[in-house]
Design a protein that fits this description.
The complex is a heterotrimer.
Chain A lengths: L2 H28 L8 H19 L9 H33 L1
Helix pairs in contact in A: 1-2
Chain B lengths: L16 H33 L10 H4 L2 H26 L4 H31 L8 H33 L4 H34 L1
Chain C lengths: L6 H4 L8 H7 L3 H26 L3 H9 L4 H32 L9 H35 L8 H23 L24 H29 L12 H33 L13 H33 L7 H14 L15 H13 L1 H15 L8 H23 L2 H7 L3 H31 L5 H27 L15 H30 L41 H8 L12 E4 L4 H18 L2 H20 L4 E4 L1 H17 L23
Helix pairs in contact in C: 2-3, 3-7, 5-6, 5-7, 5-18, 6-7, 6-8, 6-10, 6-16, 7-8, 7-20, 8-9, 8-20, 9-10, 9-11, 10-13, 10-16, 11-13, 14-16, 14-17, 16-17, 17-18, 20-21
The chains are: A mainly alpha, B mainly alpha, C mainly alpha.
Chain lengths: ~100, ~210, ~700
């Protein structure tokens, strides 16, 4: 398969994987008995995985080449995001609890 | 040759000045996207903190529905794929008609997404779920339309680029701009994953 | 006189919104001062316009400066803006000090409302429109030269960043002439700044000035980060970067990631005020405390944004004027990165008293204390740099020495405040005010002034007057101590911040001393102005065209003063740290290249000024509910960007012949002047060529 074919299959593969993961997430909510109390966790996990798939196949972020700078940037940003979001949620929950 | 470079990056030999300029431009845009991602992340955090603030008004269970959300997700995902096809068309020099066809399809799918979303909001308003009703609704209408506004900006950008492709053709600057638009469009689909997972699906599970 | 005037066009403007009308109707001292300030803005603007007309310099201003994409010019314009705003905010501080000295058991001469506007504008201006532009301008000017590049990564974005900052500053100035400013402090906490308690234009001015300015800062951050990441000259690895570039890199990363929380905080407040949302209202499910959380998620990294470039300046200055290699380069790099990362982990210490549990406070208190450690490492590194060096007491070095001692005092009080139970006593007292001014003035301001004196000769080709520089320095240091040390005592005695009237007579002597200090600081500002005037007057005696007045170590000193538009005729290749310094000792850094090639430089563009105007119009329109103006501004900005994307001829070529002529002129100047030893560097003999004494 030539370069073009390979690249096209990359997008097709990404599309298929993303579709499956999306369907899985919606199915988890449509039929809550599948995951029980862990439904939201399952939805988040499927979402995170789909994000990685899209970063890899649509955004071409990979471990080698010029994609690597982008990967480092993404990882650093993720750390900051996790810190700020988690910090906010913990703080607000703590404050709410103490106000009740 | 093409393995380590972005799709569409055929701007002179690798390491040449135009290539370096494009790489620099794209990296800069990535950085901007990261700051934008942080804005979204904080909107999500605010949403999470304000889920309890329904003030006796409608909550997630009363308002969110699976089917429209699924259709909107499918539209956006499809548009991400069609833009991928546009990128390949650009890279392998298919010529203007092919490129414009894929760009147009992406635009159409994006507009359908926005139309459906606007419709959803109208339905919510009709049920008395407008932003000034409660903190929760303010947070919802802060987050989801923020994404929608980004998609709208993206659609306008596609239109502008289409005009540029027609009038100027695909020179270095147009190519770099198209690559940046691609980053933006795909990024918005990733944000949508978070939106439908955390807001809509999350709202319907609890 | 009240009632709307043409609401369809002028929104919610009423005649009473003009300070001149207010002073006419109610001629108290407070109102007259307000009217005077407004008048000063108008007169000042007219004076500048008049001067430009008389000297026929409009075209020159437009083509040489406002539309320029040259990082050096943009850098200078940023610094000019900073100095103008410094003047305003300093005068506001003097007014506040005077009020507090007088208003002991007495209403004073300012109304509470006026006083509240003063502390709000003072803080907002000093942070957003003085410190940020100053350091952004500095980084813009110096970084490309230090890494051996021709310009920043995105020159057009650079121009936009400057324009947006200027637009925000413009809105601040507009609030003096039309309407009023927020009374909610530079932090603008709701619900006080929400519609329920402050429906006036004040908080809206604050929101849009700060939002537009912070957009400019985000753009600047992206630009500097990408420049350092992608445009380093051959051989310039990360570990060969000058320390100023390291701190600039970390600062710009902080800018990129710290501005979004501010954008979110102000945007959500705007949604509350304009569309009746309930993010920060007391009722209907609003969460007021989230504002403080979001604001300080920005606010803490922000203070590291304003200090890190100063640290970079001190590294350059201390090493240059100690005639010694900077001690502990690697530890300085690691310390800088540590500070940058840790700065995202301490934000809760700004609101220890908001009500979260002791455990959360303890965690953030520990993190806050930890962040003092890398700064301490840096201080030791600078001290060790001076040790056994030949220290020359030039003005930049004097500022560095004053910084090292004074800043540490402030740092120690920071450790005190980092302990949550102690902070419960000191929060929002003058102790806190003393602490952060103790960091910002010796830290940021002295750093900027050191940088100003250090790099001025490079930017303009002649040195600043040393004598007036010392007088200014003396006033800045003496003034600082007198103005702020009493505040520690006052704060510990229980005096709250932001108070317009005092009822405790025991505070009087301290407030008098503080007021005296403020006047000395005003004299410092005056001395700076005189220094500039004298320096321009005497510039023929202090010319340093050859470009190396201080026996510099880094690449910017290897160019002419001022450098040509393209910076380097041939991009340098670097094999070690301090390449230029080492080259002076073992090579010939002034040898002309084998041949000259043509160089592409960005053409000037109307994009920056257009977006600046559009942004300011949009902001002004939003403040006054002139929706047509806001819409016009927004579409104007979008149209400008779209139009720019169609432009193809964005660069112009400088021919090899032109370059050769410029370079020859410079190299002739280098060779015709005697290299001087360091004893002569502050005399007329200094023409910018340094004698390479063996190290």
């Amino acid at each position: 398969m030539n370069d073009r074919g390979r690249e096209t299959m990359g997008y097709v593969g990404g599309l298929l994987a993303a579709t499956v993961l999306t369907a899985g997430a919606f199915a988890a909510v449509r039929w809550p008995t599948l995951f029980g109390p862990g439904t939201f966790a399952a939805v988040c996990a499927l979402g995170l995985f789909q994000a990685i798939v899209q970063f890899r196949f649509f955004l071409h972020v990979r471990l080698k080449g010029s994609g690597r700078d982008d990967l480092l940037l993404l990882l650093f940003s993720s750390i900051i995001i996790v810190l700020m979001v988690a910090g906010t949620l913990v703080l607000m929950a703590n404050l709410r609890g103490r106000m009740m | 040759m093409s393995r380590s470079v972005h799709v569409g990056l055929t701007l002179g030999e690798e390491g040449g000045p135009h290539h370096q300029q494009a790489e620099s431009d794209l990296f800069g845009f990535w950085v901007f996207l990261m700051s934008d991602a942080l804005v979204f992340a904080l909107m999500f955090a605010t949403y999470g903190a304000m889920l309890v603030g329904t003030a006796g008004g409608p909550g997630p269970r009363d308002l969110f529905e699976l089917k429209p959300t699924l259709i909107e997700t499918a539209l956006l995902l499809a548009s991400s794929f069609t833009w991928g096809m546009a990128s390949i068309s650009l890279k392998y020099g298919d010529g203007k008609p092919g490129l414009l066809a894929w760009m147009g399809t992406t635009l159409l799918l994006g507009m359908c997404f926005l139309f459906m979303e606007a419709n959803d909001f109208a339905t919510m308003f009709a049920k008395g779920a407008f932003p000034a009703r409660s903190g929760f609704l303010s947070a919802f209408f802060g987050l989801v339309p923020l994404h929608g506004l980004h998609v709208l900006a993206g659609c306008i950008w596609i239109l502008v680029m289409a005009v540029q492709v027609i009038l100027i053709g695909t020179d270095d600057r147009t190519k770099t701009n198209l690559l940046r638009l691609g980053l933006f469009w795909h990024f918005l689909d990733v944000i949508w994953i978070a939106v439908f997972s955390v807001v809509f699906l999350g709202g319907l599970t609890r | 006189m009240s009632g709307a005037v043409l609401p369809a066009v002028l929104g919610r403007f009423e005649w009473i919104d003009l300070p001149f009308v207010r002073a006419w109707e109610n001629p108290t001292i407070s109102e007259i001062i307000g009217a005077g300030a407004g008048a000063l803005v108008v007169v000042g603007a007219l004076a500048v316009a008049g001067l430009l007309t008389i000297t026929g310099r409009w075209r020159w201003l437009w083509t040489e400066w406002l539309t320029s994409l040259d990082h050096k010019k943009i850098g200078i314009m940023y610094v000019v803006l900073a100095f103008v705003m410094l003047s305003r905010a300093l005068i506001e501080a003097v007014l506040m000090r005077m009020q507090q000295a007088i208003a002991i058991g007495h209403p004073g001469f300012l109304t509470n409302d006026h006083f509240a506007q003063l502390f709000s504008t003072h803080g907002s201006i000093m942070i957003f429109f003085m410190a940020m532009p100053f350091l952004t301008g500095l980084m813009n000017y110096v970084v490309p030269l230090q890494i051996g590049a021709r310009d920043v990564a995105f020159p057009w974005a650079n121009s936009i960043g400057l324009a947006l900052t200027a637009a925000g500053a413009g809105l601040m100035m507009a609030s003096l002439v039309i309407g009023q400013f927020s009374t909610g402090g530079w932090s603008g906490y709701p619900p006080y700044t929400g519609l329920a308690f402050s429906p006036d234009v004040g908080p809206d001015y604050w929101i849009w000035a700060v939002s537009i300015g912070s957009l400019g800062s985000t753009i600047a951050g992206i630009n500097i980060a990408c420049t350092i990441y992608k445009l380093r000259c051959p051989g310039m690895t990360f570990m060969r970067l000058p320390m100023f570039c390291w701190t600039s890199l970390c600062t710009s990363i902080l800018m990129i990631f710290a501005m979004p929380p501010l954008t979110v905080a102000t945007a959500l407040l705007a949604l509350d005020r304009y569309l009746g949302f309930h993010f920060f209202t007391n009722d209907l499910g609003g969460n007021v405390m989230n504002f403080a959380n979001l604001f300080w998620l920005f606010g803490h990294p922000e203070v590291y944004i304003v200090i890190l470039p100063a640290f970079g300046v001190y590294s350059e200055v201390v090493s240059t004027f100690s005639t010694k290699l900077l001690y502990g380069y690697t530890s300085l790099v690691i310390a800088t990165m540590t500070i940058a990362v840790l700065s995202f982990t301490v934000w809760v210490h700004h609101f220890f008293t908001m009500g979260q549990s002791a455990n959360i406070n303890a965690a953030f208190g520990i993190a806050t204390m930890a962040i003092g450690v890398p700064t301490g490492v840096k201080i030791y590194d600078w001290i060790w740099t001076m040790f056994r060096g030949e220290v020359r007491f030039t003005v930049p070095m004097l500022y560095s020495l004053a910084f090292m001692t004074t800043f540490v005092i402030g740092g120690v009080t920071g450790i005190v405040l980092a302990i949550p139970p102690l902070d419960y006593v000191f929060h929002n007292t003058l102790f806190l005010v003393a602490h952060f001014h103790n960091m910002l003035i010796p830290g940021t301001l002295y750093g900027m002034l050191a940088a100003y004196n250090y790099w001025f000769p490079k930017a303009f080709g002649f040195r600043l007057d040393e004598r007036w520089g010392r007088r200014a320095f003396t006033c800045w240091v003496v003034g600082f101590y007198l103005a702020f040390m009493p505040l520690y005592v006052l704060g510990a005695s229980g005096m709250a911040r932001r108070t317009a009237e005092i009822f405790e007579p025991d505070f009087r002597p301290w407030l008098y001393v503080a007021c005296g200090g403020a006047f000395i600081l005003l004299a410092a500002l005056g001395s700076l102005s005189v220094q500039l005037w004298v320096s321009v007057r005497d510039r023929d005696e202090t010319r340093v065209t050859a470009g190396d007045p201080w026996d510099g170590r880094t690449l910017e000193w290897s160019t002419a003063a001022p450098p040509p538009e393209y910076n380097f005729a041939v991009l340098p290749t670097v094999t070690r740290r301090d390449e230029f310094y080492e080259g002076k000792r073992d090579g010939n850094p002034y040898s002309p290249p084998v041949r000259y090639d043509r160089i592409e430089v960005p053409r000037g563009s109307i994009l920056g000024p257009a977006i600046g105007l559009a942004a300011m119009s949009c902001g002004f329109g939003l403040v006054w509910h002139m929706w047509w103006l806001a819409g016009l501004g927004l579409t104007g900005a979008a149209a400008a960007i779209i139009a720019r994307s169609f432009v193809r001829r964005t660069d112009r070529i400088i021919s090899p012949g032109e370059i050769e002529a410029i370079e020859r002129r410079w190299l002739t100047a280098v060779h015709e002047h005697r290299p001087i030893s360091r004893e002569l560097e502050r005399t007329r003999a200094n023409h910018g060529v340094a004698e390479a004494m063996p190290t």
